[in-house]
Amino acid sequence: MKNNIKKLRKDVGLRQEDMAKSLGVTRQTINAIENEKYSPSLELAFAIAELFELKIEEIFYLNNKGGKGNEEK
């Protein structure tokens, strides 16, 4: 699953440590999610979306060729 968390986090000036603390996870978890080495639980994905005041599909998307989605630019 792809995501744009790193860009969103940097756009608002949020450190991984601060994001992790507000979500009740470790900085390593945020790092792994940002680097697409770990897919968050549905509960955590919704918490991340709420943190950025976005819909979950604006943050997370599948990397399907030819499919509708948020392609990286």
Automatic annotation (TrEMBL):
Keywords: DNA-binding. Pfam families: HTH_3. CDD domains: HTH_XRE. GO terms for molecular function: DNA binding. This is Transcriptional regulator XRE family.
